[in-house]
Design goal:
Elements lengths: L1 H14 L17 H11 L3 E3 L8 H13 L8 E3 L10 H4 L6 H11 L3
Parallel strand pairs: 1-2
């Protein structure tokens, strides 16, 4: 679901003239760090989206690696879009209220762009 959210957010941002590069990391072991770092060096920004809590997730590890390796390339702090820190709701309609969505992703992208 996250890749779909990221792609839809990128399409919405494009309507405002903002180009977003979307990376869909298919595996985390091995993690394609070169792909991530090349993208950060190209865009000078990063938004990490994951369907997990903000604390101790894979996104936290990716954000930390970006920070440690690409600090001088970043024009803004790494922004993260995660699930809300609440127990996961079982009803699909309610579940969508706590998972990352297009609106949150657009807000994060605009935040790293200082818009």
């Amino acid at each position: 679901m996250v890749p779909l959210v990221a792609i839809k957010a990128a399409e919405e941002l494009a309507k405002d003239g903002i180009e977003a590069e979307v990376l869909d990391l298919r595996s985390i072991k091995p993690l394609d760090e070169a792909l991530i770092f090349d993208s950060v060096r190209k865009t000078n920004r990063a938004v990490v989206i994951e369907e997990n809590f903000k604390f101790c997730g894979v996104g936290a590890e990716i954000a930390e690696r970006i920070h440690n390796t690409c600090f001088d390339d970043l024009d803004a702090p790494v922004e993260r879009v995660t699930s809300l820190d609440v127990p996961m709701l079982y009803a699909h309609l309610l579940e969508t209220t706590v998972l990352p969505n297009v609106e949150w992703t657009i807000l994060a992208a605009k935040k790293v762009l200082y818009l």
